[in-house]
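Appendix B, record 7
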Amino acid sequence: MTSAILFDLDGTFADTAPDLGAALNHLRTLHDRPPMALETIRPQASHGSLGLLKLGFNIEPDAPNYADLRNAFLDYYASHICVHTTLFPGMAELIDILEQRGLPWGIVTNKPHRFTMPLMQALGYAQRASCLISGDTCARAKPFPDSLLKASELLNIAPQLCLYLGDDKRDADAAQAAGMRCIIARYGYIGSPEELSRWPAEGEIDRPSQLLKYLTY
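Structure tokens (predicted):
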């Protein structure tokens, strides 16, 4: 029996790629580069500023101007955090069902608190979530298990009774290390679908409603 459900944020709970892509393209425009297609940006959207700046500028953190680019990207994103971002289709209905069943749910993301809380507030779900764990809540973010274990602690529910839904290998790795069951959101920002079979997950879903079949046996 599953007693709590935890969600990754970017690429699982909400489709944040349009606003992350807009921030990247804003920066590219400032540097006289053409905008990139959302379809190109989407697979990197779960990898934060590191992955997006690598994609948009082919730059690594040790580059001299990396910090300035990153700060400009994050500042723009912070001020345009929920312009085009929406829940994935069917997620609102899934949350309603979980709440009707009395099942607590929460967010465990690598997104810093600076962005997690404003985004969840803008979406209207900050107060409904039983816990909001950001990438800087614990000393180590996913793929380490710390943030998932923190969520388990806050919910007062054993890790083995929690189910985690994510769209990246680090989500599956963190869940495995925490002793949680993990399901992969195939509708999210999956870069290489052929690799999914090697991820330590119990199953995969193509839309949020399919998670319901994993809640009980």
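Remarks on this record: Residues 17-30 form the longest helix (14 residues). Residues 17-79 form one domain.
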